[in-house]
């Protein structure tokens, strides 16, 4: 059974930082591409960042220079370091593992940026 479990979401002030974590099980982690998505209230889920199995990283323009995705294949973990957080970053953040037609999601972790 595939499981992705996110953690690290919290309430943070504008300009603050958070590190999200996603623990994977039930997949051969090293061959999967990993991504973070987010969904703000009333909006569609949007892709935020990805870290492919061949170690390519990409980011949506709105987080470039502020967010960093990383992965640890030995621990089967993927992370999202988020700096200089802004209110518009408020959303539920989801971890995604994808390979060919297979795509798995975590349950999400809430990030709220507010003073």
The N- and C-terminal alpha carbons lie at a distance of 40 Å
Helix content: under 10%
Mean pLDDT: 97
What is the succession of H and E elements?
EEEEEEEEEEE
- CA gyration radius, whole angstroms: 13 Å
Proportion of residues in extended strands: over 45%
Keywords for this entry:
115 residues; mainly beta; seven-stranded mixed beta sheet; four-stranded antiparallel beta sheet; 53% strand
Which helices and strands, and how do they pair?
Elements: E1 3-7, E2 11-12, E3 18-25, E4 33-39, E5 46-51, E6 57-59, E7 67-72, E8 77-82, E9 91-99, E10 102-105, E11 109-113
Parallel strand pairs: 2-11
Antiparallel strand pairs: 1-3, 3-8, 4-5, 4-9, 5-6, 7-8, 9-10, 9-11
Short description:
With 115 residues, this protein is mainly beta.
Report what the structure shows:
The strands form two sheets. Strands 2, 4, 5, 6, 9, 10 and 11 form a seven-stranded mixed sheet that branches. This protein has a four-stranded antiparallel sheet with strand order 1-3-8-7, with no helix packed on it. By secondary structure, it is mainly beta. It has strands at residues 3-7, 11-12, 18-25, 33-39, 46-51, 57-59, 67-72, 77-82, 91-99, 102-105, 109-113. The model has no long low-confidence stretch (mean pLDDT 97). Strand 4 (33-39) and strand 5 (46-51) form a beta hairpin.
